[in-house]
Design a protein that fits this description.
Length: about 130
Amino acid sequence: MPVKYVLNQKGNPGDANAPKKFYGSAKSIGSITLRQLSKKIADISTVSSVDIMAVLEALLNVIPEQISEGKIVRLGDFGSFKLSIKTEGTLLEEDFSVHNIIKNRLVFTPGKEIKKTLSHIEYEKEIKVIKK
């Protein structure tokens, strides 16, 4: 089943006189919960959904703990998680301190199997239905 996309017209924030361009964005058709994921995994394995939930809940605790210790969490073919920070620059190295760190974010890099699957996704423009 192809992934739907929609088009949005946007201007250039750096140049108000530049012509607006159309950009595509993926359109989600919903979401799936951790519990629903565990049931799907249980359906294709010999492990119960309760056991799968226990492992997933443990991952929810262990991954942030390891990230906060400065580690990259590598989950094999699934991918890896690492911390990235945004900072304000200083002219001199000695002027930089923890106060120059503006924010952090978690970066996920997909593994080989996920990349392979993503490279074969088909796309289809969503047709907008106008209600009268």
